[in-house]
Amino acid sequence: MGVHGKSPNPRRSVSVKSISSDTSLSAFGTAPSPQETAAYIAEIVGELVVMAKGANLVFVAHLLAMAQAEAEHVADSVI
Predict the structure, then answer these.
(1) Quick check: is 51 in a domain?
(2) In Å, how far are 1, 19, 56, 70 from 40, measured between CA atoms?
(3) Residue 70 falls within a domain, yes or no?
(4) pLDDT tens string 15-72
């Protein structure tokens, strides 16, 4: 419990928004490739990096930036 008896992070119980329909299945009904998935993850994590920096969460921003770089590497690789 946090200060004043409140949960330390009230957002934790909120469900995560699902991936948009254009990334979950293509027009042919197949799952996206690992590269497409990694590119989407890199995009979303990039937005989280901006949010973390804006909130002065330096270490969180650093970790997210590393995850973004790894996702971009996978997105650019040939599997």
Answers:
(1) yes
(2) 35, 9, 25, 12
(3) yes
(4) 344 445 455 555 667 899 999 999 999 999 999 999 999 999 999 999 999 999 999 9
Asked, for residue 56, whether it belongs to a domain, the answer is: yes
Rounded-to-integer distance, Cα 17 and Cα 33, Å: 21
Tracing tokens 């799952």 back to the chain, one arrives at 31
Burial of residue 74, with CB atoms counted within 10 A of its CB: 0-12 exposed, 13-18 middle, 19 or more buried = middle
pTM, to two decimals:
0.64
Q: Could you read off the pLDDT of 42-51 as tens digits, one per residue?
A: 999 999 999 9
Residue with tokens 């997105």: 75
CB 79 within 8 A of CB 35: yes
Q: 61 with 52: CB under 8 angstroms?
A: yes
